[in-house]
Amino acid sequence: MAAAAANDALMLGPLGLVLSLLLALLAGAVWVGPALMAIGVIALEAFRDMRVDRFLAGDIWSSSVSVELITLPLFILMGRSCITRACRRTCSAGFRRGHGSSRGGSRM
């Protein structure tokens, strides 16, 4: 019983430190994602014998160059360029021509 109580007391130190750092970061208006990432890096460096920079750089790079993060800004840019070049009128006229006589029609 005494060993279990000692083990519980040892876990309260790191847990208290991690929770207090998390609350301090969130109270300091740091976004949730960067706050959790900072807490994870600090906890791994402090409480484990692990070099975080070795694997963290690869994980961050692989998640930041995903296909979704590349195509979304290009899609927004394409839509914006269509609006500014009056391509919208041409596209909507073609849509009315093709779907205007169908059941329900086009309300453009």
Describe, in plain words, how this protein is organized in 3D.
By secondary structure, the protein is an all-alpha fold. Among the domains are: 21-59, no CATH class; 66-97. The chain contains five helices and no strands. The longest helix is centred in the N-terminal third of the chain and has 26 residues, at 2-27. The radius of gyration is 27 Å and the shape is elongated. The mean pLDDT is 75.
Question: How would you summarize what this structure contains?
Answer:
The protein is an all-alpha fold and 108 residues long. 80% of the residues lie in helices and 0% in strands. The chain contains five helices and no strands.
Q: Helix proportion of residues, in percent?
A: over 70%
The rough form would be described as elongated
Q: Output the structural class.
A: mainly alpha
Secondary structure tally: strands: 0
What composes the largest sheet?
A: none
Average residue pLDDT: 75
The H/E string reads: HHHHH
Which value, in Å, is the CA radius of gyration? 27 Å
Helical segment count: 5
Low-confidence stretches: none
**Amount of beta strand:** under 5%
- Please give the alpha-carbon distance between the first and last residues: 76 Å
What is the topology?
Blueprint lengths: L1 H26 L4 H16 L4 H13 L2 H18 L2 H13 L9
Helix pairs in contact: 1-2
Q: Tags for this entry?
A:
mainly alpha, 108 residues, 80% helix, 5 helices, elongated
